[in-house]
Amino acid sequence: MKKNISFICGCIEQGKDGVGDYTFQLAEVFAKNYNVFIIAINDAFVNQLTSNNQSSIQIFRIPQTYNWKAKQIELSKLISTISPEWISLQLVPFGLNYKGIILKAIQPLKYSIGAIPLHLMLHELWLGEEIGASRLNKLKGKIIRHFVLRLIRKLTPKAIHVSCEINQHLLQRHKIASDINPIFSNIKINQNYKREKTIQEIKSKISLFDDGNPMFIAGLFGSIHPQWDFSLCLSHLRNTAKLLDKKLVIIGFGKISSDSIVNIKSQLGKEENLVYLGMDSETNISNYIQLCDLGITSNPEILVSKSGSIAAFWLHGKPVVICRDDLKIKGFETKKTPHSLLLKPQDLIKYFTQIPSKTTTNFKYTPQDSAMQIQNAMIQYEKAPLIS
Length: 388
Prior knowledge:
Low-confidence stretches: 356-362
CATH topology of the largest domain: Rossmann fold
CATH superfamily of the largest domain: Glycogen Phosphorylase B
Oligomer: single chain
Largest sheet: 8 strands, mixed
Order of helices and strands: EHEEEHEHHEHEHEHEHEHEHEHEEHH
CATH architecture of the largest domain: 3-Layer(aba) Sandwich
Strand order of the largest sheet: 3-4-2-1-5-6-7-8
Distance between the termini: 16 Å
Number of domains: 2
Mean pLDDT: 87
Number of strands: 14
């Protein structure tokens, strides 16, 4: 008889919430051997409590507009009815409160989860830990940190995962042990991708995309850090495109702010182009990634393993150029591991002119890998069915 497991996240609207998409893909793996339930407790895309079944997963959505007393009532009812053997809480403070202050969420979660064994995945921690952080971010971070730590101590999770070394280090400062479970790609590979068809589809939306000249295409996927300086890699992209006798084209997709788009466009030359395609389906995002020669990230190197967009490019066998190493944390030194699909700007020409061709294997961290890490944590406390 299958056991029950419940995942809790903030929002589960497909394609609109990265952690929600992550949670659903993780749940799909567990659904092979468990009865799986997802409860979104702060969903901005519904106006009333809703439920539906997708891929044999029962999904419940509690509206963001409910106050936390009402959320506690609904959440405790659902958990009592489901009676899960385990709960996995996929936490982003800003997913439960727009300021990241999760004070009001702690009691409803503690009351509803009770003594059920809890796995906690901390996708984000708090602000203001980097050297040079503003006084305002330090103050905000101190408040957010206080309530994140309180939540951990109140809920007493049996296993805690984070996605990168820096977050593990920040928890260790407060004597909280955790293991690293890197973020996998939310974008599966579209096996039916056709290059010319994708180019024509983009051209139908933005006629200036393709003028018939060969293109060197760099992709920007998802939000851009305001600290990122695009100019640090632009000259290297230009030089690589010129050496390959191609026109530099940058395509942006996912949620990118208008300010970021304007900033990048202002730095491009007359013969260069930026095409912003916005939010789109998983299939189309996969097509855009496959069309690209490489990805560009605004993440600093120490946050690579927590980036779903980098994971998506790597899953598709695409290199990613990183031009930020400015995030420094007092007392922390990252263990930098060379990665043949993670490039510095000065590596671009060598990478795109080297022989033999680049490999596209062994750079895939999958939902199955992530699920196995959670499974292994569960096994420490009980005999759990193996994930196939």
